[in-house]
Amino acid sequence: MQEVPETNTANEKQVTPQSDARAPAPVPAVMPNVVIVGAGFGGLHAARALRNVPVDVTVIDRNNHHLFQPLLYQVATAVLSPAEIAAPIRSVLRKQKNTEVLLGEVMGVDTQAQRVLLDDDQYVPYDYLILATGARDSYFGHNDWAQCAPGLKSIVQATAIRRKILQAFEMAERETDPEKRKALLTFVLVGAGPTGVEMAGAIAGLAHKTLVSDFRHIKTEQARIVLVEALPRILMAFDERLAKKAQTALNRLGVEVRTNSPVEAIDCDGAVIAGERIPAKTVIWTAGVAASPAGEWLGAETDRGGRVKVGSDVSVQGHPNIFVIGDTASFTQDGKPLPGVAQVAIQQGQHVASVIADRVAGKPHPEAFRYVDKGNMATVGRYYSIVSIGKFRTAGLLGWVMWLVLHLMFLIGFRNRLVVGFQWLVYLTTFQRGARLITSGDEIHYQ
Length: 447
Prior knowledge:
The protein is built from eleven helices and 28 strands. It is α/β, with parallel strands linked by helices.
């Protein structure tokens, strides 16, 4: 393993202007500075793992909250409110005396001067840098589709989708033209990975159960939910038998599943799927993702998805003190790239923290990163989930109970676990959803 080059950046702990003319004189300090960009699963676990290491930790994120993304679809479908699956980063890390949190947008990295560049002409120096900047939606070269087919990566997107779904029912209640009403009550989801499957099941539950008694001029149970996948089957990360069981469960919920059906065009009036146009006022993108621009910041080698190729210790070639983890990293194990799931980010964050701890202590860290697959889960409506853990496979109520318990365990904060557990209890026993709010924001106008 290469030694980290000596640097004097640790003595400039404060955020400083990019212009050297305005930068304050360096102040000597004892401990090296570890900068973590991104407070998702990987970044947050890295920060926590460094709590007893003699370093100064600076966590930078453009949002002030950590988001539990696996439950984001439940915000988009009015089961949960945003605050129930998010926690303020400062609150999560408040007891770590060696850690500070900065709210800011990172624009780049100066690898020569070892500093992270912010959008307000300031910078943060580092001795060690951990980039945990996640992923963004990829429309495979059709970025114009984003305007009419939003993705699901943030609270802003989730609440916008919730507004769009609920407003579609409201507009259908007033619409007298049967064809326009049908388009309003048609929901197309592009991409049948876990997010697409879970979203489709949740929308089906909303339309076919929760809203059935709320409207007078429409029958919400006649809503059409179409889940589209370009590949031969859904849930490619799962065993084929489990995927088939999930598809059967979706069909029972009234979801149309279309495989081998690539999307050819999307506009705000519908989508063209395998040559057939489906009129729909709500199209949701749950397909491909691309990495953050971290590769561009570093000038590093990336794969086709823009993920930075990293070494055995998750560091960047030529920069042994820079680590890239989670969805932003391209790490190959046993000849296969690791999937973009939370467990990969968590384990990489913890590994990088141990590498830094050993280097600071002057000890070698010979162990390469090794991902331990703890399994996959996906839920399909109420009381039905598929679970794959090692050689163990299950589908149905048992899988759903396992899904429920594990998601509650991994939520950040006791309050969130308590509130989410209560909301789920209400929903599972009454079908009612307490977050059915059409909030302010960009209004949706249907032509």
